[in-house]
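Course assignment 3, question 2. Fill in each field.
Student: A.L.
Task: Predict the tertiary structure for the chain below.
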Amino acid sequence: MTTFRHLLAALALGGALGAFPAAAATILKLATMAPDGSIWMQALADAKAEIETATAGDVKIKIYPGGIMGSEQDVLFKIKTGQLHGGGFLGYAIGVICPDVGALMFPMVFRNYDEVDRTLEKMRPFLDAAARPAGFETLGWTEVGFSYAYSVKPIPSLAALRATKVWGLDSPMLMDLLAAAGISSIPANVTDVLTALQTGLLETVFGPPTAAIAVQWHTKLRYYNAMRLTYAVGGVFLSTAAWNSVPAAHRETVRSSFDKHCRMLTPKVRQSDVEALDFMQAQGVQAMETTPETRAAFEQVAATALQKAKGTAFSAAAWDLLQQTLQEIRGP
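Answer field:
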């Protein structure tokens, strides 16, 4: 009888435990325009694997690559409606989530990678805080890279650039620079640029070298100006609601894993850009070095464009912090 009672008790306990299933895993759905197999997508995949292992599956990451969830504008809408929780962004969304990062991406700001690295490190807390009013938590910043001007014609100066058919890309600050320089531009979607180069509708385009290779622009180009016009950053972000849904015990793991792999991605992007420029030159695209006079002319134009951007495209506080940091780096 005692054994029978013990068996009943065990069955009752088992039933009670069965009534309270293990807590469901937190699933975070992220989308990105980065193609599957790209170095950006690989960084996200590495962070995903690390997080799922470190949390023993309590936090799972689902990544939608290659724009299958639509444009970055579409992804932001899906985050707002709860269909997605965040993304790895390289373009439009960065300006929506954190407009103040635009100070770093203003034309002619940085001269080299050392300035980039030291400035971004100094400004990270400021930028992380600036993203929160838009409803996002920053998990990591990464590099998109320096953009150059490429053309079918030699473009050693502002005057030469004015004489070409210039792409009016979706970059408000670079467009402000062109406008301040008196350069008219022709709008075209990124997907239409190659055709426009083939037909002669466009002659000059802009972008990071790796991207220019990826979309085959180099096949129609003959020159590029070696002056670095703009610098661009990307990042991984979660909505505040999604971040709050992550168990507190796992939040540091999630943040640190994405941050680590974003940092590890930066040297890979730089190496990829070096290889892309080398490849272009091997394909007959000629590099045109920038004279001090040409750089000074572009910097003067940028100073004019700044009057419109500062306090509107990004806050005066962001610009002032950026300039203070650069002054500390460059010295007297």
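Instructor remarks: The chain is about 50% helix and 20% strand. Confidence is low (pLDDT under 50) at residues 1-21.
Grade: pending
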